[in-house]
Amino acid sequence: MPQHSDIDIARVHDKAPDRGRARRLVDRIWPRGVSKATLRHDDWIRDIAPTTALRAWFGHDPQKWGASCNRSPHELANNADAVGRGLAWCRARSVSLLCAAKNREHNQAVVLRDDLQQRLKENTS
């Protein structure tokens, strides 16, 4: 079994290409305007997303991005079950982390991808 897989990020509102990747929703709340019946996803772990308090504080403000990146890993460190499930996804196959954020560079999926990749790298060293 490979020790890590390719992890990319996709928006829930974009058309889902059929590339054989596992599609994992990583938002805490269900994306607005998307029905559960139509979203192609394999799993949804709400607890792997930032807490409601951190999401509200960040508010999609790019000026708060750096501080948000510093806070998110602390939340992940306190959520071993969700992180363990995320790592299991990544060890099994290539993964697309799904989120509803419009900003593709400043969102929780970016932080989560980087965290998972770092943890996978540390486990293979």
Automatic annotation (TrEMBL):
<protein>
    <submittedName>
        <fullName>DUF488 family protein</fullName>
    </submittedName>
</protein>
<dbReference type="InterPro" id="IPR052552">
    <property type="entry name" value="YeaO-like"/>
</dbReference>
<dbReference type="Pfam" id="PF22752">
    <property type="entry name" value="DUF488-N3i"/>
</dbReference>
